[in-house]
C-alpha cells in the first residue's frame, strides 16, 4: 500500500477517496479538509477569538489541535459532567493536552458551580441522561462564549455525527431540526456563532489523526449513552458505507447543497432569531420563557443528593 502523493509506505487507506496516505500526507489531507470546510461555509476568520468545546475525546482534541496548528486563536472549554470515572478520565486527557500545547483551558464543573451532575439530573427529571447533558452543555458553551468575548464556538462534530443526525431527522421528518442542521449557526439574539469544522472528516480519520500526532484521547464511550438512537443510526450508515464508500459524505453534503433550504422556513432560517425571545430573569441568557431551560433544570434538581452513575439505568 503506497501513498498517493509520494509513493512511500502508506499508513491509512481512505476508500471514499480511493486513496492511501503516508503519515505526512495524511496530516496534510486533514488540514486541507478542515481549511476547506472553514472557507466554504465562512465559519470564521484569522482574527476571530475561538472557543473550542472539548471533552477529552478524539474529535474535540483533534480539531483544537488542528486550529492551533493552522494559527487560529483557539481556547478550550471543558465541562465536568460528574459522570463517575468517565468524567475523571476525560478531564485528565483534556488537561494533559492543554498543558502539552501551552493552550488556554477554561473549566466548568456542574456539581461545584451549579449544584448538580448529569446522573443526578437524569434521576430527578426521570428523563434520559442525554437530555440534561445536551441542555447543560449548550447553555454553558453559549454563556461562556458570550461572557468571555469569544466570536465563535467550535464543536467536534464530524461527518459521521452529522450524517447520523440527518438520518434520524429524515426518518421522522423533523422539519424544524432539518432546517437548523447546518455546519454554521450564525450569532443571533445573544447566542454566539456555532460551527463544525470537521464535517468533511470521519471518526476513523480523526482517530488516525490522533494516533499519528500522538494525541492521547478518551477512548471509552459515555456509559450513559447506551441505547442512544444516534449510535444505532451510525451503525446503520456504516453498513451502507461499507458497501458504497462515500455514501455518508454524499448524503450529508448533498442535503446541504440541494435540500436544506427547503426546510429553513420551519426553523427561522436555521438561526436563533425566534419571535418572542426574551431574557432569562435568572441568568440573563436568551429564552422563550421568563426562566431559561437550564435554570429551570437547576431548580428541579436543587436539593437532590448526588446519584452514582451506576444507579442510572440506560433507556432504549
Describe it.
With 316 residues, the chain is α/β, with parallel strands linked by helices. The chain has one domain: HUPs (Rossmann fold, 3-Layer(aba) Sandwich), CATH 3.40.50.620. The strands form three sheets. Strands 5-4-3-6-8-7 form a six-stranded mixed sheet, sandwiched between helices. A hairpin with a 6-residue loop joins strand 9 and strand 10. Helix 1 crosses helix 9, helix 5 crosses helix 6 and helix 5 crosses helix 13. The protein is globular, with a radius of gyration of 20 Å. About 2% of the residues have low confidence.
Question: Mind sketching the topology for me?
Answer:
Elements: E1 12-14, E2 19-21, H1 23-40, E3 49-54, H2 58-69, E4 73-80, H3 84-101, E5 105-109, H4 110-114, H5 118-125, H6 129-148, E6 152-154, H7 159-171, H8 175-180, E7 184-185, E8 193-195, H9 203-213, H10 229-243, H11 247-258, H12 260-263, E9 278-279, E10 286-287, H13 293-301
Parallel strand pairs: 3-4, 3-6, 4-5, 6-8
Antiparallel strand pairs: 1-2, 7-8, 9-10
Helix pairs in contact: 1-9, 2-9, 5-6, 5-13, 7-10, 7-11
Tally of helical runs: 13
| Radius of gyration from CA coordinates | 20 Å
Report the CATH C-level class.
Answer: Alpha Beta
CATH superfamily: HUPs
Question: Sheet with the most strands?
Answer: 6 strands, mixed
Count of domain modules: 1
Provide the structure class: alpha/beta
Number of strands: 10
> Strand-residue fraction?
5-15%
Supply database-style keywords.
316 residues; Rossmann fold; two-stranded antiparallel ribbon; 48% helix
